[in-house]
Amino acid sequence: MAGEGNLPDVWSVSDVERLAAARLAPQVRDYIAGGSGEEVTVAANRAALDRVAVVPRALVDVSACDTGCELFGARSSLPVAVAPMAYQKLIHPGGERAAARAAGSAGVPYVISTLSSEPIDAVAGAAGATWFQLYWLRDRRTVVDLLRRAEDAGCRAVVLTVDVPLLGRRLRDLRNGFALPPGIRPVNVDGDVGEHVPGDSVLARHTAAVFDPSLSWRDLDWLREHTSLPVVLKGVLDAEDADQAVDRGVDGIVVSNHGGRQLDGAVPAVTALPEVVAAVDGRCPVLLDSGVRTGADVLRALALGATAVLVGRPVLWGLGAGGERGVATVLDLLREELETALRLAGCPDLASARRLRTRG
């Protein structure tokens, strides 16, 4: 593949995943790859994306191809942001800072998780444009503190995750008795995640203790009163929810089923995307999350009306395969694949990609 300093003999995200899987402990591999229940939605996300067929345009000058866009006040080199993901030091000692540096070098936003294993300011200082992902916590003082820290660190948006009143029942983690090794914990949230218990997941126990399942529409007003940053909702799949969110002043929507890690049997995110785009009707950006693996997937999302996508597991595979260098490889692959897909579809820019027709 193109790009100096990338991992050798890697031509796709699948290659990167194989490298990472060979280097990571089995329970860590399962933590990254796994979903909830029987992982029906994990598979459905991928199958639904594969069914989206793009109708290319012909006789278009694609000698130049612009992949850039603006996302929440910052220029991005791609219609891509790194999704919020917890405990990245579990995967590589460089952790969130390594991934954030790679995102910054690639010119794409990096979303810092509430459950980051490194402090907000340290991760933001390593990155370019950053957004902060917020889980709704029982302790509102902690929520306010997190918002202030995100603002002080220069984050450009707050991404409120709305599909985790409790953690999905992730069978791989339960079977493995998944636990965090010593020295890795959610440093931005008080409290110990607890010890290993056979047949249990420490992550499920911890989130049940600190997440507030009473999150509802009325809390959006409270959130907007406590931050000056744009508020983006992540985890929306229903068009009526999207319409109500925009009516209540939300600044962005992420169509997501949490990568199949929450409700098993939920609609694939890409299947829900067109109805959400129609309901929003241009009033705010709509991003797609869940299942994106290739530049062709990014093109599919754009053709269905998405402003951009979030990329999750591929970044973690990159981190596991080679730290910052591995993440840089993944982002470089996506860039190369998207540029190729755009040109082959007859699209010199992202606006023309959004005018493409699709089938399937």
From TrEMBL:
Gene3D superfamilies with a match to the protein in the record: Aldolase class I (3.20.20.70)
Cofactor needs: FMN
Residues annotated as domain FMN hydroxy acid dehydrogenase: 5-360
GO molecular function, one term: oxidoreductase activity, acting on CH-OH group of donors
Record Pfam families: FMN_dh
Entry annotated with the keyword Oxidoreductase: yes
Active site, UniProt feature: 258
Binding site for glyoxylate: 31, 135, 170, 261
Source organism, top-level taxon: Bacteria
Cited SUPFAM superfamilies: FMN-linked oxidoreductases
Keywords from the named record: Flavoprotein, FMN, Oxidoreductase
Residue ranges of coiled coil: none
Residues where FMN binds: 84-86, 113, 133, 161, 234, 256, 258, 289-293, 312-313
Family named by the database record: Belongs to the FMN-dependent alpha-hydroxy acid dehydrogenase family.
Protein name, UniProt field: Alpha-hydroxy-acid oxidizing protein
